[in-house]
Amino acid sequence: MKNTKAILMSVLMIGIVATAVGGVTLADFLDTEFSANNKFSTGHMDLKISDWSGWEYDDPDVPALISASGAWPCCSKDAIFDLHNFGAGQPEGGYAYMHIKDVVCFPVEDKEGSLEKCEAERVAESGGWIDNVLVAGIGDNYGEDCHLADHVEVVIEFDTNGDGVMEVMIGNPIWGAPGTVYLSQLDCCWIDLGLIPNCNTHVGKISLHISDLQEEDFNMDYFDVTTPVGQALNDWPTAALMTDGVSFSIEFLLHQNPQPQLPDCPI
Asked: Which residues, at least 6 apart from 106, have a Cβ–Cβ distance to it below 8 Å?
């Protein structure tokens, strides 16, 4: 029995020594560091618009880009705008689109606040005397259709690649030439402006022009017999556009992917 106890004690002592030696060896190979506040987030699209004054605007504080009054035939009103892509995290940038919508016509008040039409407008619409010539008139402006929008020509240009040169996206800069586009044709129309890389600005321009309404277009080619060689009247139907106004909205879209499902311009 004595020998048995001695053996057991010897084994126990060996185990304790081995444990102690193992503990010292393990500590030599341990080191701990701590990394805090790890995050993973996606990028975002951020489009800002500025006008000719240089002020930058963000939705819903973007003002009207065009606020023109007192326009007349062969008068052009222009507006320059910048689209800023402040987005982050998109490999290529964002695809920009321009949307013309909510085209609405309205009568314009005179300086006394009256909506009464002047004589020239009444004659052009309903008929009457222009100098010494009796004309039949081309009809009333205010129906279900937007009359003025049918005669406001539109050209939209945009710097599609950021080289400082604007390309024509819609319309013809030569007013009245083939390819001329009218405001009424652009209602609910999405215009593809191309890719704007991150942290880039591309410039655009929208121009509006009122064309003369020629009597030939209404099969009313009158001549003033009191003038030499029967000189033609000077596009008298144009007076029908007096005291007319039109409003519309411009919506800009910046998307990380091309949007083929958006309705293209029907022109």
From this structure: 244, 245, 246, 247
pTM across the whole model = 0.75
Greater pLDDT, 267 or 159: 159
Sign of the CA dihedral running 183, 236, 68, 171: positive
Tens-place pLDDT, residues 111-122: 677 778 888 888
Average pLDDT over residues 187-195: 92
CB 53 within 8 A of CB 67: no
68/70 Cα distance (integer angstroms): 7
> Which helix (H) or strand (E) element contains residue 250?
strand 244-255
* HEC per residue, 182-232: EHHHHCCEEEEEEEECCCEEEEEEEEEEECCCCHHHHCCCCECCCCHHHCE
Q: List residues bridging with 182 in a β-sheet.
A: 153
Cβ contacts of residue 181 below 8 Å, gap of 6+? 153, 154, 155, 170, 171, 172, 265, 267
- pLDDT per residue as tens digits for the range 156-182: 999 999 999 999 999 999 988 999 999
Q: Which helix (H) or strand (E) holds 7?
A: helix 2-27
For residue 119, the surrounding DSSP H or E stretch is helix 119-126
Q: State the CB neighbour count (10 A cutoff) for residue 31.
A: 5
> Which one of 37-41, 83-87, 115-119, 232-236 scores highest in mean pLDDT?
83-87
Residue 52 has pLDDT above 70, yes or no: no
| CA distance linking residue 265 with residue 187, whole number of Å | 9
Partnered with residue 196 across adjacent β-strands are 94
